[in-house]
Amino acid sequence: MAESDWDSVTVLRKKGPSSAQAKSKQAITAAQRRGEEVETSKKWAAGQNKQHLVTKNTAKLDRETEELHHERVPLEVGRVIQQGRFNRGLTQKDLATKINEKPQVIADYECGKAIPSNQVMSKIERAIGLKLRGKDIGQPLEAKPKKK
Questions:
Q1: Phi and psi (nearest 5°) for 59?
Q2: Helix (H, G, I), strand (E, B) or coil at 93
């Protein structure tokens, strides 16, 4: 019975502090008080999505020319979309629902911010019944005979 000592405790598996706990200010100050070596380093611009280095790409963007711009929807097309919408009595949200797009897409097309997509343009053309591409923008869309 001399082997069983009720006053001492043997711990077989003791986990250290988690990484978040080890990095906390309290854990760092406690380790410094005990005289342990503590290395702390603050990451530069941590958690920010900023580019602080001047690279070749930054210089290229500074010298930006017409070649680097994306083609946008002309304002003329935006006005035709608005006119067609008003003629059909639709709001931007109604038109967007009708063509299965977000209302912001319609708003971007109308104010000329959108990059043109033939798929979306054809959906809008069919919904408002006006041509948005080609020479005769704003003309009524001709109904093509259905193939049988």
A1: -65, -40
A2: helix
